[in-house]
Queue: 4 jobs
Job 1
Amino acid sequence: MATAYIVDAVRTAGGKRGGKLAGVHPVDLGAAVFDAIAARNDFDTSKIDDVITGCVSQGGQQTMDLGRNAVLASNLPDSIPAVTIDRQCGSSQQAMMFAAQAVMSGTQDIVLASGIESMTRVPMGSVATLFIKEGLGHYKSERLEEKYPGIMFSQFMGAEMIVQKHGFTKDDLDAFALESHRRAKAATEAGKFEREIVPIEIETPEGRELHKVDEGIRFDATLEGIAGVKLLQEGGAITAATSSQICDGASAVLIVSEQALKDHGLTPRARIHHVSVTAGDPVIMLEEPLFATEKALKRAGMTIADIDAYEVNEAFAPVPLAWMKYLGADHARLNQHGGAIALGHPLGASGTKLMATLLGVLDATGGRYGLQTMCEGGGQANVTIVERL
């Protein structure tokens, strides 16, 4: 089987809901990261075989094949095809894995995997809610309702179930959230994100400026402040402060074959070592990364001790906490530059976003192997393992 290589990975700095990226159309967010990939890497972009774009909320400004529209808005040739996919929060990680599989199969040589999500312009759940309000139907069919009567497949409820099942306290969640902000703050101030972030020109009341710092980081975060945020559910443990931040953003990863490296004089940053996806309980749903990672490591002939850095999406604090507990993982190797609690979770853009950050962590620490995984709607989880070169 052929090897798939990662040449580059970029992302926008996260924008808060209604924040600095709110004035940028999602198509243009995607075009910006596509242009950055093209500008940073000297190769004939007409040779890109496909663009695969992840997006969760495919409504309004994010419809009509969002990825293709971003290609058309970018400086890439119009001859490049594109497709938009949805595997919920893992959409662009799946895009990356589809790209890697295309290269590994030998059917394509250069594929751009990406993710785009403006949670300001197309709010989470807005498409399903619109159809329900208009009397156009619910996502649960009669047969699905028969199998799961009265269950709404809530990620929030799944997170609360993980808290109870794994014996965490609100204090555990608060402490984890604080550490996410501290790590994101330290990484920002040390310039750790400079290689991965694509500055986006925006209009502000003071004039034009470049957005290049993740807007959600609380640089003055304290445990007292986090602990004081009200519970999202009476009797529960999760608050907005221990949940991922709503975020606008885009990201992209360039994946190529060995032949493409030679033909275009490209230098790889990493190789794809393993890709897999699994599914489990759709009710507790967010627990699947635990079992997906266990299976992935076994298939790759590795243990958690072999992995130098891991990115586990901080959808809610109990998810990475349970992941660490189950696998015996080292918190020092987890989300070393902070996670979605501080940096934001732009849904379909988070998969390739995490890869950009993971590669930056491996470069900064000199680590060899990196692993990323995330919980996804429907009780699914993707796992990608890379080897830094």
Job 2
Amino acid sequence: MEKIKVLIIFGTRPEAVKMAPIVKALKKDENFITKICVTAQHRDMLDQVLRIFDIEPDYDLNIFQSGQTLTQITCRALTGLESVIEEFKPELILVQGDTTTVFTGALAAFYHSVKIGHVEAGLRSGNLYSPYPEEANRMLTGVLTNFHFAPTQNSKSNLLREGYEEDKIFITGNTSIDALQWVIDKDYKFDDELINSIDFENKKVILLTSHRRENIGKPMKNIFSAIRDVVDENLDVEVIYPMHLNPKVREIAQSILGNKDRVHLVEPLDYLPFTNLMSKCYLVVTDSGGIQEEAPSLGKPVLVVREETERPEGIESGTAKLAGTDKNTIYEYVSILVNSEEEYKKMANAVNPYGDGRAAEYIVDAIKKRML
């Protein structure tokens, strides 16, 4: 039997996390010859995940440059991928999510008449500029895709509404849930002794993340101010905020949350400590996309501090609430979850809508049925 040549392309930490289960599944299946190409759109954060999951890229474009623009990322990735595709001659290229690497990977595949599989297809916020540039990236990728691996029924519905053929759409769940099963350790010890010293059993620890471009400025000031006020009024609440490296984000965080009792501004965490921190915390307040999927699988309520989300399944199932960026609304939502055990349990015990941890298996099976 002739084997299928698959090229897996990714460039950032979130992509690497969500592609890792697929890499493992394809590598152990004798029907495939699988090679991995990283663009290294992000460098250090990507390398962390490669080490955790013991993944050795076959091709490393190493395109990262400090201060890089979206145009520069696109041009360097597209040029580098051309050489890789011409050398390996894959029959299928897999990309994941909505980064600039994803779009350039799909475009490079299209230019070489290679079939494209889009993992985590069909997410839509409804606003082309939020999140930016991710909403455009995933829509542009969809146009070029042959196999849409949608994590949920809602994602499939988005694709059908846009005119994609139903027999090219596969509901798989999200591979981030697969990955979490490998890394969570109830006895995990952090390198940061400050985090180890926190009483997670008796304190209501809020894990805060905020970094989105569209939130920098007044929205982010509102988010941090609301959290500060909740801490002031509730002595059993502590906050951990792994600060994003963006100087503008750090300046806002330091001005509002710096030197604040029971608020811990820490350096960014690698995937392994971050996910284990998420498993120990009480509540997550975030403007991230992937965390909206991961936290519910750990039984943690999520407050999404954005004006819209491309992951409405969490809102609909009750594992997440869309809090927006108004200070008073955020304060109200956080306060309710901190002070009402009933409301907290409603969210913590809601059914996670993002799958059963077997998404990679379903994706590989779908590829085999269509290509063997």
Job 3
Amino acid sequence: MRIVLITGISGSGKSVALNVLEDAGHYCVDNLPPALLSSLVKTLTDEGTQALAVAVDARSAESLATLPTDVLRLRAEGHEVKVMFLTANTHSLVARFSETRRSHPLSHELRPGQNPAARRTLIECILEERERLSAIEKLGHVIDTSELSANKLRAWVKELLLTDHAPLTLFFESFAFKLGVPMDADFVFDVRALPNPYYDLTLRPLTGRDAPVIDFLDAQPSAGELLIDIRNFVEKWLPSFKSDNRSYLTVALGCTGGQHRSVYMAEKLAAYFSDKERVVLRHREQS
């Protein structure tokens, strides 16, 4: 059976991801206690279910500790298990809870000896949840949804579904430093040292995917040197990540606005490695 396990911080988009998987034909279960995962898989396997998606959150605190072992056991039994961990920065999470006017799942829990009137604040709930989930964050692919719209998250989840049989998938992601570094990045490269096309009024409305911007940066010796340096670094260390049985490696390229230099560099790197590896290209600041 193909199993997608969705976990992560409340408010980071788990429901959005689960809806994408349901639309893709997965049998979906939300808020399943991890202790019930193995029995659910057995029941659905006996019924002939081919694809399952399960969302797990921090409310099942006691059984979360067994989740890594459960995942390994399911894989040993021959199931294809993919894990997605969704996260976001605290500022984005607070804004989302404020917009929806929903309470955090952990806000209803009482600590030992606590007065029922003295419940956790939203910030306390988020910090507690991060602590509970820290041990399982690296079970799979981490997606930082801080600056993602629901539509972009849906697209990224669909991309992830296409990587089922790849031994390792390389994600190249462009971003804007002014909007924050992606929390899901394994490596972050700063390309702001390159000449900025933004200061050319004819190039400003374009992006690093447009020919005039590409031509401008191709003509800069520093751009070529930096591209080779990053490419050589990734090539040197990629075998180590493969030997460590990693399924994903995210290389993030940042510039000031996430429109020109970082996009150009991500496109160049993705094109180079696509002949050798399974590559997914993302531009966080572009629709």
Job 4
Amino acid sequence: MAQLIDTIGNTPLVEVKSFHNNPKVKVFAKMEGNNPAGSVKDRAALNMIRSALERGEIKKDTKLIEATSGNTGIALAMIACLYDLELELVMPSTSTRERTLTMEAYGAKVTLLESMEVCRDYAEEKAANAGYFILNQFANPDNYLAHIKTTGPEIWRDTAGGITHFVSAMGTTGTIMGCSRYFKEQNPAIQIVGCQPTEESSIPGIRRWPAAYLPKIFDASRVDRVIDIAQSDATRRTRELVKKEGIFAGMSSGGALHAALTVANEIEEGVIVFIACDRGDRYLSSDLFV
């Protein structure tokens, strides 16, 4: 009989048909909201904690800390709960209330600060000076290795090796880094497309990092193209995704859909897969669906 941890991954790949008319171009959503804690970050959270335990870097009495914008924190809270580990999550105060309540429901302590950059500095300082172990998703290879082990192979299997373009939001960049490594080994011609917000836009789950805070796991050479996403386009596509396709996802998924459709309108044939990275219910207190 499966345990909850065994249900992470193997999420559905669903064709999205409402947005273009070329039968030779297929667009698929990888439904990461189907993971038990509701996002693609379940994969990285499990791999980071399990691998650290296996290496002996953390033990049952280790106090964990991590800065997060939301989804990684929720996933880590679930995994820490299952392993009976103490966890403090540091999150921007602008995050939706649903995120904080979900983390606390799993038993994590939540600290709210003014920005993601400040949260990262706080977590690193506490790890250095207060005896906490920082998982550091921004620099931890176990983040992207999760997607070499699971996400990439699942998409390759479910498209029967037919994928031509992979589209992903870029936050910690773990998903796109891992999938890029896997896909390029299978077929170097597969195009890796990343999404980042325009300069003036704020899109939860997608970041345009200042140079000093660029994730250390990020390697620009592994991304063939970066598409800038306006906040208005991410919002519009998120609303269209639920109304036209019944896919209730967050704003970064709308941004990834917009990038996927940009690619779809440029090519004559192909198979495009984008990451629908979480569920829409953790944005209900925002104006995303208003």
